[in-house]
């Protein structure tokens, strides 16, 4: 018996690039930025190619003896998938999988057409944004002499602010989304999304 060796062929090619930059403890400011770019290309014309860009920014700021404490996270995930079209090809009666009725094609095991899937090269973007912000303002963390300089009502007042948002959309105006134009959030192109804003005020927060 003779055996022929099967050769493996490339089905797809994937590439990933990662980049990172940061700033630590500069004037009480810490920033970290991460960027990932991925591509996946298929050898078969009937497979959708993908492009993915992921950006994440983390920020922390705590000036004035941490009486102001700001934490923020912002994440962008832009995935672009090439669109697929079905092209009918005539193969003869009884040789196909579809039959033509008017301008439409319907499945039929004895049909005379087959539908061939092909990538158009036109990419449809899907953008997902996630972000959070936490702001804690508390004069009690100031040195005693600085607290005494504040007007009486303000030295005993503190606050906590929390903002969370998530938006997944097919809106093509990606730069407006990146700039956090909230007027474009939860619109006709939105697949899913939510927005939460919470504000807590405290008087005599540290007195028991």
Draw up the topology in text:
Layout: E1 12-26, E2 29-42, E3 50-61, E4 68-90, E5 96-101, E6 104-111, E7 113-137, H1 144-149, H2 152-155, E8 157-169, H3 174-178, E9 190-203
Antiparallel strand pairs: 1-2, 2-3, 3-4, 4-7, 5-6, 7-8, 8-9
Q: What are the defining features of this structure?
A:
208 residues; mainly beta; 7-stranded antiparallel β-sheet; two-stranded antiparallel sheet
How would you describe this protein?
By secondary structure, the chain is mostly beta strands. 7% of the residues lie in helices and 62% in strands. It is built from three helices and nine strands; from the N terminus they run E-E-E-E-E-E-E-H-H-E-H-E. Strand 3 (50-61) and strand 4 (68-90) form a beta hairpin.
End-to-end Cα distance, whole Å, is 90 Å
Largest sheet: 7 strands, antiparallel
Strand order, biggest sheet? 1-2-3-4-7-8-9
The global form is elongated
Poorly predicted sequence stretches spanning 5 or more consecutive residues: 1-5
As a percent range, the share of helical residues equals under 10%
In short:
7% of the residues lie in helices and 62% in strands. It has helices at 144-149, 152-155, 174-178; strands spanning 12-26, 29-42, 50-61, 68-90, 96-101, 104-111, 113-137, 157-169, 190-203.
């Amino acid at each position: 018996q003779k055996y022929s060796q099967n050769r493996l062929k490339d089905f797809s090619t994937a590439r990933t690039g990662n980049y990172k930059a940061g700033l630590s403890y500069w004037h009480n400011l810490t920033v970290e930025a991460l960027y990932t770019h991925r591509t996946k290309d298929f050898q078969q014309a009937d497979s959708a190619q993908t492009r993915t860009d992921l950006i994440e920014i983390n920020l922390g700021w705590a000036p004035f003896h941490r009486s102001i404490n700001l934490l923020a996270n912002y994440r962008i995930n832009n995935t672009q998938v090439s669109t697929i079209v079905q092209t009918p090809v005539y193969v003869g009666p009884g040789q196909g999988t579809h039959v033509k009725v008017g301008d439409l094609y319907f499945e039929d095991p004895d049909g005379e057409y087959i539908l061939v899937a092909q990538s158009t090269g036109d990419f449809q973007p899907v953008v997902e944004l996630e972000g959070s912000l936490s702001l804690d303002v508390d004069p009690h963390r100031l040195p005693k002499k600085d607290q005494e300089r504040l007007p009486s009502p303000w030295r005993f007042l503190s606050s906590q602010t929390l903002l969370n948002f998530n938006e997944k959309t097919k809106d093509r105006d990606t730069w407006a989304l990146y700039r956090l134009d909230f007027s474009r959030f939860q619109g006709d192109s939105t697949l899913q999304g939510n927005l939460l804003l919470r504000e807590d005020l405290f008087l005599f927060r540290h007195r028991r």
